[in-house]
């Protein structure tokens, strides 16, 4: 598949699955935005993609922070003029058990895995819809299969996980 001149945002794009997703899209011709909280990992993947002939932009992003998400979208539009695909990949675990896990850790998990995915879709949707009339959202819940969403349809192939609720709640006309 050819993604020449498509603009793809990959949250959590500096490490793990996100790193591989970013590199794969770049190798297929996409302009990749690496939205990553870990500056070292994000910059290293940006450099790797560029050294291998791809186009990439690292943007420091904590998806749990609304201002960071807005900045991610703004930098993407300023640099590339559009957004075609959002890969909601950023996610964390909390460790421990229900007996030992502090509520602060649980709150962080919800803020990154659920609220962060929602905010990314919320702020990416207007430029996707406004300029091009369509775009694609792909969400990869931690340790679960992913589901693919488009602006008019949300199809979940993930029967469990924190993002199932998001797929039922998110509505993009």
UniProtKB/TrEMBL annotation:
Coiled coil: none annotated. Signal peptide: none annotated. It holds the Pfam family adh_short. This is 3-ketoacyl-(Acyl-carrier-protein) reductase. It comes from Caldanaerobacter subterraneus subsp. pacificus DSM 12653.
């Amino acid at each position: 598949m050819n993604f020449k001149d498509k603009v793809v945002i990959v949250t959590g794009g500096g490490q793990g699955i996100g790193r591989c997703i970013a590199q794969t899209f770049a190798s297929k011709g996409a302009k990749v935005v690496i939205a990553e909280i870990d500056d070292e990992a994000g910059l290293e993947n940006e450099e790797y993609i560029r050294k291998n002939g791809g186009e990439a932009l690292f943007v420091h992003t904590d998806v749990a922070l609304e201002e960071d998400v807005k900045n991610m979208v703004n930098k993407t539009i300023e640099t590339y003029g559009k957004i075609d695909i959002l890969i909601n990949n950023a996610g964390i675990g909390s460790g421990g058990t229900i007996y030992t896990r502090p509520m602060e850790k649980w709150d962080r998990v919800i803020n990154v895995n659920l609220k962060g995915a929602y905010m990314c879709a919320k702020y990416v949707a207007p430029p996707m819809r406004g300029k091009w009339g369509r775009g694609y959202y792909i969400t990869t819940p931690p340790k679960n299969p992913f589901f693919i969403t488009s602006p008019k349809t949300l199809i979940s192939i993930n029967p469990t996980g924190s993002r199932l609720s998001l797929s039922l709640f998110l509505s993009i006309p």
